[in-house]
Design a protein that fits this description.
The protein has one domain. It has helices spanning 2-10, 14-32, 37-52, 56-61. The radius of gyration is 11 Å and the shape is globular. With 62 residues, the chain is mainly alpha-helical. Helix content is 81%, strand content 0%.
């Protein structure tokens, strides 16, 4: 799944990538908590999607 979402992101399919990254983030928050490294990495991936779309406010809020 990581390869798929990375491909979506790199090819500019931001909506598809965002929904997958968000689902991963939600799951990791539930399983590991919001301070765990794997959760923070998921947050960073979502921030990159926001950045690439110029959605700076959403990126900063996350």
């Amino acid at each position: 799944m990581a390869l798929l979402v990375t491909t979506y992101h790199r090819q500019g399919y931001y909506s598809k990538a965002e929904s997958i990254y968000q689902a991963v983030l939600d799951l990791r928050c539930k399983v590991f908590g919001d301070k765990h490294l794997v959760t923070i990495r998921a947050m960073a991936n979502l921030v990159l999607i926001f950045r690439d779309q110029g959605r700076w406010k959403e990126a900063e809020e996350l």
